[in-house]
Design brief:
Blueprint (H helix, E strand, L loop, with lengths): L2 H18 L6 H20 L9 H19 L1 H10 L3 H8 L1
């Protein structure tokens, strides 16, 4: 899984959907959505190896490490800026009319 590419693509799709709904998008909106996607990826990665017999401290450490690695590879700033600068599909549709 290429987390950086996946996050950028998903954020661009999220941004397009928000624009299509007439919403104004901010960097904060994209960062919030990115945090949700990062959490989803972490859950998917940790699920198969999650051990309920680990202490809470050990499980929290695994989660922290996973989240840090995903954020590092997701290239958060690049993903957010890419989503914000993606062309608005509604503008293209209007130009075609």
């Amino acid at each position: 899984m290429d987390t950086a590419c996946d996050c950028e693509e998903i954020l661009r799709a999220d941004a397009a959907a928000m624009r299509a709904a007439g919403e104004r998008i901010t960097a904060g909106d994209m960062r919030c959505l990115l945090a949700g996607h990062v959490a989803r990826v972490a859950i998917q990665q940790l699920g198969p190896v999650w051990n309920v017999t680990y202490t809470l401290q050990e499980r929290m450490e695994l989660a922290r490490q996973s989240l840090q690695e995903i954020m590092r590879t997701a290239n958060a700033d690049t993903a957010v800026m890419s989503a914000l600068s993606a062309p608005d599909p509604t503008e293209r549709q209007m130009a075609l009319l």
